[in-house]
Design a protein that fits this description.
alpha+beta, single chain, four-stranded antiparallel sheet, Rossmann fold, 731 residues
């Protein structure tokens, strides 16, 4: 590196550039179309969209001059909470103008976002390394620590502080391999180290010459201690497990606290003193909207007739399996236990005790466990997982002299890599059901935990857990009806160019008591929200339905997850056409009635009860809102079907885009709410209708079926074995 001995201010060496800006009027904004739309007298037009976009620009302008802002959200460091590793949690306030029945409303919500802490970079690095103070930074960094620091601070914007009159801003490229004492630079033909250069040039004696330097440009190095982190920078990397847990705990707020934070955001926005709103003749109330809601009646759930309590009506959105037997218990005659822990961490006696408790629970719940002492295998969690599973599978088969049905895997922690590989091998290589549990749950196993594991095992082996009494699911009971749920998930979240997994789940029984589902999976490229091969996927599930019960569905209720409002029309046009095409490809005159419903969880609508609340302060399960804040004239509603365990519950938004089945609001709301009580994974009402919930799980599982070639880097995608496609392997 060659350095010039120049102390001239940056402004003299880099004269300011002059820009000429021309502002030209593009068009007038016509509000009439929007007024017509709000009063159900016209459709959504480009004029409507332009008017709404203008409103969002106006309401966001003033706040954008005072706080960091991205799209419709602004961030504030008020009440920021320090996290580990030099990261802090900031409040994020979201605001957007939304059309509702007869008027425009502002949707405001609060969430949490990670930011880098501003200030000395040396302090941040000490925190990244887990040191309590700068005094602990007393020696050179190991290669591992240097890589850890470099990964965290790469692309971070910094300013130097060694020359206050000539302060500059940079972006971190990387760290040097050597310390400041050993990183050499060329100054007027002489080689000296960075430490000596700063001593001679700036009379700055480095306190940490043993630390590496920051590389900001080609051959331009800065000691860490002369760098300051520029404030207000978002942390854009994926949060590690520790940071994610800290963020979740900070962001989890009960309804009262969340409502107060939203009100604090309203005070920051201060609409009444916003001169830009006044100039455009806009008035916005600082009060939350009060809307009417209904609480739907709770359905009755049926278990096996031999149960002591064969019917149950949930209380507060949950129930338990005590004195109840599943409607169709599977038989387990060949299985093994695979522990990815050594004997010291988890003894054979502890495993046997857990297995005994699990078997007792399964039998009490109606399963038939004929193999009471499964073989226990042990393998290294960082070894060859595929070989480990194959060994456990073969040992189970040899002992039972039959095809193994299940491998129960005990994991040392929540490590996602080991879990992913177990599922990839079990689903796509061997073709055997796997049930993973964390080792912590094997110590003093709780009955409720064993019961939840039992429910999953039963459906993976082809059993059925419970059903709704016919009068509570009349739409399915009246005629042969297939419920379908569709979802898309990316292989790598945020990667718009990477592959996506599309999953379609469909019920395979004609009666209410048999809500079993089959799946169809596709891998597709690009960032489209459209499921490109939906016609063939629908055809597969219609065939499975017919093969299972010998009848063709006369009705299709299709739930579609993960669609943004801007894509409603396109998704409906493409996917409704695909559903109809699938039916006609099976039989020219086959035309079942179709209802197409979009299901949305990613929204910012929250409910805060005024009168009556559950123990967490949330609205009661079954709360439904279908007026005031909904679409000006289309068929949509918000349903809070589950009981919140932590924080503020998020209602699910159901929007009917097409309906040939003659649903009225009450009929569809009741059906959706009742279906939320049929999840096979637990004894709780869930927040999404199961067809979509299962599609989400199946798509997420499909992500785990990919593997990367170590030589070429090519990604290959495994196909689920045929024998598992007939059962709910993804649960």
């Amino acid at each position: 590196m060659k350095l010039e001995k120049s102390s001239e201010p940056v402004s003299r060496r880099h004269p300011p550039k002059t820009f000429k800006i021309t502002i030209r009027k593009a068009r007038d904004i016509d509000m009439e179309d929007l007024f017509q739309f709000l009063h159900a007298k016209g459709k959504m037009t480009n004029n409507c969209r332009m008017a709404i976009m203008a409103m969002n620009i106006i309401i966001n302008h003033k706040i954008s001059t005072e706080h960091p802002i991205i799209r419709n959200s602004f961030y504030t460091s008020q009440e920021a909470k320090p996290l580990s590793g030099g990261i802090e949690a900031w409040q994020r306030y979201y605001q957007t103008a939304r059309p509702t029945r007869g008027k425009m409303m502002i949707n405001i919500d609060v969430s949490t976002t990670a930011f880098y802490e501003g200030g000395p970079l040396i302090r941040m690095i000490a925190k990244i390394l887990g040191f309590r103070s700068l005094n602990d930074l007393c020696k050179e960094l190991s290669d591992k620590d240097r890589q850890k620091v470099e990964k965290r601070i790469k692309n971070l914007k910094i300013s130097d502080n060694h020359s206050p009159e000539n302060q500059q801003k940079f972006k971190i490229r990387k760290l040097t391999q050597t310390s400041a004492s050993h990183t050499m630079v060329d100054v007027d033909g002489s080689n000296i180290n960075v430490k000596t250069y700063f001593q001679n040039m700036y009379n700055r004696r480095l306190l940490y010459p043993f630390l590496p330097c920051i590389v900001v440009r080609e051959n331009i190095y800065l000691p860490i201690e002369v760098c300051d982190v520029i404030p207000e920078q978002r942390y854009m990397q994926i949060l590690d497990t520790r940071l994610a847990d800290e963020m979740t705990n900070f962001a989890r707020q009960n309804p009262n606290i969340r409502a107060n934070k939203i009100k604090a955001g309203l005070n920051i926005l201060d609409y009444k003193k916003n001169e830009y709103l006044k100039q455009f003749g806009m008035e916005i109330s600082n009060d939350m909207a009060v809307v009417n809601a209904r609480i739907l009646p709770t359905p009755t759930i049926q278990y096996h007739q031999s149960s002591r309590e064969n019917r149950v009506q949930p209380n507060g959105g949950s129930w338990n399996l005590r004195n109840k037997k599943v409607i169709n218990g599977a038989t387990l005659s060949s299985w093994s236990v695979l522990a990815f822990l050594n004997y010291k961490s988890l003894s054979d006696q502890a495993i046997k005790f857990f297995v005994r408790e699990l078997i007792i629970t399964c039998q009490d719940t109606g399963m038939n466990i004929s193999e009471m002492e499964p073989l226990i295998c042990r393998e290294n969690p960082i070894g060859n997982t595929e070989e480990s599973l194959k060994k456990a599978w073969l040992k189970a088969g040899n002992k039972a002299r039959g095809k193994p049905q299940l491998v129960l895997c005990i994991l040392p922690n929540t490590g996602s890599n080991l879990y992913a590989e177990i599922k990839r091998v079990g689903d796509t290589v061997i073709g055997v059901a796997t049930q993973c549990i964390q080792s912590i749950h094997t110590i003093n196993p709780k009955k409720q935990y064993c019961a939840n594991v039992c429910l999953k095992m039963n459906v993976k082996l082809g059993g059925e857990n419970s059903f709704l009494i016919p009068e509570h699911i009349q739409f399915v009971e009246d005629e042969p009806t297939i419920l379908m749920g569709a979802d898309i998930t990316k292989l790598s979240p945020g990667d718009s160019n990477g592959p996506s997994y599309a999953a379609l789940c469909g019920s395979v029984n004609t009666k209410a008591f048999a809500l079993r589902y089959a799946t169809s999976i596709r891998v597709q490229t690009g960032s489209t929200e459209i499921i490109t091969d939906l016609a063939n996927m629908v055809k597969e599930l219609l065939k499975t339905f017919y093969q299972t019960c010998g009848r063709k569905p006369k009705k299709i209720l299709f739930y579609r997850n993960g669609v943004s409002e801007s894509q409603f029309i396109k998704v409906l046009e493409c996917e409704l056409t695909a559903i109809k095409e699938a039916c006609q490809n099976l039989e020219a005159n086959y035309k079942p009635t179709i209802t197409f419903v979009v299901v949305q969880k990613r929204h910012h609508t929250r409910f805060f009860p005024i009168q009556g609340a559950d123990r967490t302060g949330n609205c009661f399960p079954g709360t439904v809102v279908d007026m005031n804040i909904t679409h000006p004239f289309e068929f949509d509603f918000y349903l809070l079907s589950h009981a919140g365990l932590h924080g503020t519950s998020r209602p699910t938004h159901y929007h009917v885009l097409y309906d040939q089945n003659g649903f009225d609001a009450n009929k569809l709301q009741m059906l959706c709410y009742n279906l939320c009580h049929t999840s096979v994974r637990c004894t709780r009402a869930v927040s999404l209708v199961p067809p979509v919930y299962y599609a989400h799980l199946a798509a997420a599982r499909a992500r785990l079926h990919s593997s990367e070639c170590s030589k070429s880097g090519a990604i290959t995608f495994g196909v689920v074995k045929q024998e598992l496609q007939k059962v709910m392997y993804f649960i």
